[in-house]
Design goal:
heterotetramer; A alpha/beta; B alpha+beta; C alpha/beta; D alpha+beta; B: alpha+beta; three-stranded antiparallel sheet; 13 strands; disordered C terminus; D: eight-stranded mixed sheet; four-stranded antiparallel sheet; 11 helices; binds flavin-adenine dinucleotide; binds iron/sulfur cluster
Chain lengths: 251, 431, 280, 331
């Protein structure tokens, strides 16, 4: 069998998605055996992007001209472009103040030197290029990465369940923090696949996997308002990882 | 005629970096290290957010150091509001900090540095030329990650670390599993020290370190409240601004730092150059290599990391035993009312001293945020050493020069994604 | 292996031929492996096709049962599994479960005139029925096939249609929604939608059984015309598509009213589902 | 008279001895404070007075996620046989017994589901009588009290009357002779009915769905979180997913719980959705729960355990529709 050629690259990111791949301690040898990591600066010394890729995994949001250049470069060389992680799929944490202009934000940090810095509001990959598949999560779950690589070997892309975190949370028989503790849990809105990791550890879902395929954000907001949370609090939580909420009421 | 050669991107490091070497003929004129990570403006993202959200957001600054970022931010928040946490919570935090240390050091030593020792490009080839070493490294790394997963609820960006207490306390079964995973690794960690003790740099020496590390009385290793520089100029963490100055340089998105006007180095080797209270086995190793570490330039850092790895495993086992012997009755959440105030805290991240400082208003909304990361502190030293190495290798083959330069940078274990941040302007003006 | 196990474990089949019918549709001939390759079924039934590593999709059997156990599937490339199938070549192996569903009631059709109305890929199950009817041509009255495709290039089974057009005992009526190129040689083709075609033909509604398969909008517009013409509702047979996972009435994705498409269907009498909201 | 009475003081011994027959599970309180069926070593852990568990016992027979088939290039698809483990489930309330009885009818019909069947064979049910609370209404759903248990413990003041439903139950009780005493078994007491009697009439006759503005109200509020069906003892609809493995040669097929309130439930390739609106999905769920599909048609599936009402974050209760119908009919 021909080894698929893959590229793994990071844009505006914390490198957690790539690190998750390197954290697949038990599978790393099999990965090295089955794939050619033709471009993967974090793990392998390769400085040039050469040849074509069967798949490029791109981590991070796009927030600088260099990011965009890299993204377009990878897109034009890869049969499949896969968004790796919530930053790449939804914009992620770096975009949580995307409602504010960029320069004043940069000034908060870089002061008078801010104009040296070429940066725009971080956006997800699909705003700039076509994306074939996405692995979500901040950071992504190892099994999702492994399933995607395995699907590439089988000649296809993976399917992930489309329902929200609550479903998995119930399956695990966690205490519902929204109902029983009146906490601001975003589980009903968020893409499953993490096994309701946070509620299982007694913490609310902070929404790190981004919106589920189908959400009723209006109803969730109404519910949270009834529970006493302010509009600002709810908005701040919902926009931590994504701005792309579909507020349509489908019925 | 001058020309420039580039290492772009720096590979097998966390984050985006470039080394630019300016040559006149074959002579190295100047070297620039550019930490060109796209700026994520974390301090700006935090302003206006509730103190509850701060740790959850700030840990995303960096994946490898997410645990220590989160812990440091908790400590700063707790300081701002005068919250005291229970001994059980402190032990959990110490354990997960050590877990992060194990995972990070193992990743760095085995996946990023080891390929250099075998002359290969990365872990993919290591799987062929040094499968046993790679396997050992991954096993140790996995154990560190298991600690983070068990205590933190997740390996990267842990979720149970919250102000005032733990979101979840480890169950006896979980602690037992951790013990069973770590105990067999103790002898292995000694082998790791031997592997890295055997490595001698092939290129000319650069400057010896002038170390900076966190110290404190009656606190575990990696914790503290004094920023200590060898012999002189120590400062309380709260006064970090008096000691550390940052400066914007046009070729990098991270500011370079100096401490008391000097170029300093933080990290494993710097920590070990003070008199650390290491665990018994690690103390033995340290004693054996003390001289060598003291005289070495930064390329002693990998050996220092190996010794720390041993300490982290041994100490984790102790903490696990302590936790297992104290029945962890679920603690009541401590009541605290956020109020106006500032808090500053520091911890030792795998790659050096990390400082978080926040201001809050009366509702606990963040008004100022400042984060100083170890890689930002090390940036000046890295540049200095690169130049020295370049000069020392005068006339050397270009490829070899660049290879040695990349190894030198790697020895610092830089973590570029978190290095990119800067200080609030108004605070700077206030100085 | 028990019978129950046999119905849940796909049998291995080998692709023996692939012929492309249009830009996105191809006919796959498969042969089952093992000692009892014979595969008997009723036209209108379907199988669950497995692509290892991809999953399963329900696919109609597109030819009449063959003695050597060869199965023909006419598949359009629309998503994951169908793409994996289209990427396979002769000699590749796939999995087959089934047959499932009820199929067309050939007994009830005996002695009657037959009108087949196929839209697009709806040709797949109706081809199987057509083959069965032609194999026993004497048992049925007048036989008409009305087939509509989007455009001439999307007409499936062209050569077979050419042969069919030459027969005197079958009436063939073709239509396309629009024309972009030259009409294919040998095939007379109308332009327009199937209901318009239906309005133009003469048939005896009381002695005719009608079988319809096509995209969802097809049903609404043709059935109205048929009923208005006087066709009895229980003589109009519809083959419906629904999401299906198990094919055996367990997974509960395919209910049409209180009927299950996979076991009570996929062929329904119009009279049985007329009042079910959302059935058509 | 058979010896079928167990004094309270002997219950711990009875429980202890059940361990001989398999892995003993019972309702316990998890560290989160959730009542769940879990392995239980001693009676002290067991919540004898529990109301209901979060997830019903169906999880033992139809796990939330299970690998059903393995495929290799040489052998094709192979059945993955569930672990050979005998499980004794202690403390099952009548509504949950009825739930299992319903699932048995679905999965053990003419063509039994091999995975379900195998687990069911190795599953022993020890029922326990209960006190209803505000959420449950099993009295309305029919006389489910005598269905599907191997042994049933009917609580009395000073102990339990033991009923036996199967040979397996008899065999187990036979080994407990020393613990049991003679006592006349009183007739089972009837549950009070909480709903108007005509409520389930439409369900049985297969009539069209009631017209009520509640459908729209539900559709607007529902979060599509899936809690109601995950918690329902008779919801069994499942999705099937398949994926390869990193060695590139094998594949695994998994089936996992699905929910008819999810948008993708009725969607087919090309974007056609047969239940595109949440309103239609509610009606689908209602039909399945109260009218039944296929062989189960005209059999209401709801066993009155009250879980879905308790688990819904926005407090949607399908029974409201039934209730309203009842009042309509009675007017
Ligand atoms: C009784 C019946 C007979 C059919 N006969 C044919 C035929 O002869 N030729 C043909 O080309 N197509 C036929 N179809 C449609 C075919 O099943 C779908 O096109 C196919 O499932 C699409 O799968 P995919 O993975 O390529 O698409 P994707 O869109 O990638 O599918 C994604 C998911 O949706 C599910 N899905 C999508 N559509 C359906 C569906 N209709 N039923 C069940 N699950 C679905 C798949 O299982 C998969 O999990 C038939 C469908 C039914 C119900
Ligand atoms: S998605 Fe999360 S883990 Fe991945 S790069 Fe972004 S912040 Fe890091
Ligand atoms: S805790 Fe959160 S994720 Fe879990 S069920 Fe409740 S709302 Fe959903
Ligand atoms: S529970 Fe929510 S925040 Fe936690 S991992 Fe899952 S999606 Fe992310």
């Amino acid at each position: 069998m021909k080894k698929p050629n893959v590229a793994i690259a990071g844009l505006t990111a914390c490198f957690g998605c790539q690190l998750t791949l390197l954290d697949c301690e038990n599978e790393l040898a099999a990965m090295a055996d089955r794939f050619t990591f033709a471009y993967f600066p974090m793990g392998v010394t390769t400085r040039t992007i050469e040849g074509d890729f069967d798949a490029a995994f791109v981590e991070g949001a796009v927030s600088t001209p260099e990011d965009l250049e890299m993204l377009v470069h990878l897109r034009s060389r890869s049969r499949l472009l896969i968004a790796l992680g919530t930053c790449a799929r939804w914009g992620g944490i770096a975009g949580l103040k995307n409602n504010e202009p960029r320069l004043p934000l940069a000034e908060t940090v870089y002061g008078g030197d801010a104009h040296h810095i070429d940066t725009f509001n971080p956006g997800p990959l699909h705003r700039f290029v076509s994306v074939d598949a996405a692995i979500v999560g901040c950071p992504p779950e190892k099994p999702d990465i492994i399933a995607t690589l395995a699907a590439l070997l089988a000649g296809t892309l993976p399917v992930f369940t489309a329902y929200p975190v609550c479903m998995e949370c119930r399956e695990r028989e966690n205490l519902c923090l929204l109902i029983e503790r009146n906490k601001l849990c975003l589980g009903p809105l968020i893409q499953s696949g993490c096994g309701a990791r946070c509620p299982a550890a007694g913490m609310v879902c902070e929404g790190c996997r981004g919106p589920a395929a189908e959400t009723n954000s209006v109803a969730q907001e109404t519910l949270l308002r009834e529970k006493g949370f302010t509009r600002d609090e709810i908005a701040s939580r919902m926009r931590r990882f994504s701005w792309e909420w579909d507020h349509d009421q489908d019925h | 005629m001058t020309r420039t050669i580039e290492l772009k991107p720096l590979t097998r490091v966390e984050g985006h970096g470039i080394v630019r070497v300016y040559l006149d003929g074959n002579r190295v004129e100047n070297v620039e290290l550019s930490l060109c990570e796209s700026p994520r403006l974390f301090e700006a993202l935090l302003v206006g957010k509730s103190y509850r959200e701060v740790p959850e957001i700030i840990c995303r600054i960096c994946s490898i150091c997410s645990t220590v970022h989160r812990l440091t931010s908790l400590a700063a928040i707790e300081q701002a509001f005068g919250i005291e946490v229970s001994p059980a919570t402190l032990l959990h935090r110490e354990l997960i900090l050590n877990g992060g240390q194990i995972a990070s050091h193992a990743l760095h030593l085995f996946c990023l540095v080891l390929p250099d020792l075998f002359g290969v490009a990365g872990f993919t080839e290591l799987a062929e030329v040094a499968p046993d070493e790679l396997k050992l490294g991954l096993r140790i790394k996995g154990a560190g990650n298991l600690i983070q997963e068990t205590i933190g609820g997740r390996t990267i960006h842990p979720v149970t670390l919250i102000p005032g207490r733990m979101g979840k306390y480890a169950s006896p079964n979980a602690l037992q599993l951790l013990h069973d995973t770590l105990a067999p690794l103790l002898p292995k960690a000694k082998e790791v020290c031997a592997i890295f003790a055997a490595v001698r740099p092939l290129s000319p020496p650069v400057a010896p370190l002038s170390p900076l590390a966190l110290q404190g009385k009656n606190v575990p290793y990696l914790f503290g409240d004094i920023l200590e520089m060898a012999g002189e100029n120590s400062a309380a963490v709260a006064d970090y601004r008096k000691l550390i100055r940052e400066e914007y340089v046009s070729h990098s998105n991270a500011k370079t730092c100096t401490a008391a006007g000097k170029v300093v180095t933080v990290g494993a080797q710097a920590r070990l150059s003070f008199t650390p209270g290491l665990s018994p086995a690690a103390s033995v190793e340290l004693a054996a290599h003390r001289e060598r570490l003291a005289s070495a330039d930064i390329r002693g850092n990998n050996l220092a990391q190996a010794i720390e790895l041993l300490h982290a495993i041994e100490r984790s086992l102790d903490v696990i035993a302590l936790l297992a012997s104290t029945p962890s009755a679920p603690e009541e959440p401590r009541d605290f009312v956020p109020h106006q105030g500032t808090g500053t805290a520091a911890m030792e991240a795998p790659r050096g001293t990390l400082i978080h400082s926040y201001g809050f208003d009366s509702r606990g909304i963040c008004t100022t945020a400042d984060v100083i990361t170890p890689t930002a502190i090390n940036q000046a030293a890295m540049e200095r050493d690169l130049l020295a190495l370049g000069r020392g290798m005068d006339g050397a083959d270009e490829a070899e020069l660049m290879h040695q330069m990349e190894m030198l940078v790697r020895a610092y274990d830089p973590c570029i994604s978190c290095a990119v941040h800067l200080v609030r302007q108004d605070e700077r003006r206030g100085e | 292996m028990t019978a129950a196990e046999a119905s849940v474990i796909p049998r291995t089949a080998t692709i023996i031929a692939v012929s492309h019918l249009s830009a996105d549709t191809a006919l796959f001939s498969l042969r089952l492996e093992g000692e009892r390759p014979h595969f008997s079924f009723v036209p209108g039934q379907f199988i669950q096709l497995s692509m290892p590593g991809g999953g399963e999709a329900p696919i109609s059997l597109a030819a009449a049962p063959a003695d050597d156990g060869t199965i023909e599937l006419c598949v359009r490339r629309v998503g994951r599994i169908t793409t994996m199938l289209h990427n396979s070549r002769s000699g590749d192996r796939v999995g087959i479960r089934g047959p499932f569903g009820n199929g067309f009631p050939l007994e009830e059709m005996t002695g009657r005139d037959i009108l087949l109305i196929a839209g697009g890929l709806g040709m797949a199950p109706l081809r199987s029925l057509l083959h069965a009817l032609l194999a026993d041509r004497d048992r049925y009255g007048a036989l008409t096939l009305m087939y509509g495709a989007r455009e001439p290039a999307a007409i499936l089974f062209r050569e077979e249609l050419v042969a069919l057009a030459r027969r005197t005992d079958v009436k063939l009526l073709l239509t396309v929604d629009f024309v972009r190129e030259e009409q294919p040689a040998g095939l007379a083709c109308n332009i327009g939608l199937l209901p318009a075609l239906l309005a133009g033909i003469r048939f005896d509604p009381t002695s005719t059984s009608v079988a319809i398969c096509g995209p969802p909008p097809l049903y609404g517009c043709t059935i109205g015309a048929l009923v208005a013409a006087g066709c009895p509702e229980e003589r109009i047979y519809l083959s419906l598509e629904r999401r299906m996972k198990c094919g055996q009435g367990l997974c509960c994705h395919c209910a049409v009213g209180d009927l299950l498409c996979c076991t009570d269907g996929p062929v329904f009498r119009y009279g049985d589902i007329r009042n079910v909201p959302g059935a058509l | 008279m058979a010896k079928r009475f167990l004094f309270n003081a002997l219950l711990p011994d009875f429980f202890e001895a059940l361990h001989f027959f398999g892995e003993l599970h019972a309702p316990v309180m998890t560290s989160d404070g959730v009542t769940a069926f879990r392995p239980a070593l001693s009676l002290a852990e067991v919540r004898l007075d529990y109301r209901r568990t979060l997830i019903p016992p169906k999880k033992y027979l139809l796990p939330p996620r299970e690998t059903t088939l393995d495929a290799t290039p040489t052998e094709g698809y192979r059945l993955r046989t569930p672990a050979d483990k005998e499980i004794i489930l202690f403390g099952v309330h009548p509504c949950d017994l009825a739930g299992i009885d319903y699932l048995d009818r679905v999965f053990l019909s003419s063509s039994p589901d091999p995975w379900y069947a195998r687990r069911r064979e190795r599953f022993t049910l020890i029922g326990l009588s209960c006190e209803p609370d505000d959420f449950c209404f099993c009295g309305d759903i029919g006389d489910n009290h005598s269905a599907g248990f191997d042994i049933f413990l009917e609580q009395a003041e000073d102990g339990y009357h033991l009923l036996c439903g199967t040979d397996k139950g008899e065999a187990i009780l036979a080994s407990f002779k020393d613990l049991l005493h003679e006592r006349r078994i009183p007739p089972p007491h009837k549950r009070e009915k909480k709903l108007p009697p005509s409520c389930f009439a439409t369900a049985r006759e297969g009539e069209p769905l009631p017209a009520t503005p509640m459908w729209d109200d539900f559709a607007q509020r529902c979060l599509s979180c899936g809690a109601c069906s995950a918690c329902c003892p008779t919801c069994y609809c499942f999705d099937v997913l398949e994926g390869g493995t990193l060695d590139g040669d094998r594949a695994e097929r998994v089936r996992s719980w699905d929910n008819c309130l999810f948008r993708g439930h009725g969607e087919v390739a090309g974007g056609v959705n047969f239940r595109a609106s949440r309103r239609e999905r509610f009606q689908y769920r209602f039909r399945h729960k109260f009218h039944g599909f296929g062989p189960q048609r005209n059999t209401p599936a709801c066993v009155g355990c009250g879980r879905c009402r308790e688990a819904c974050p926005v407090k949607i209760d399908l029974l409201d529709i039934v209730r309203q119908e009842g009042t309509h009919d009675s007017c």
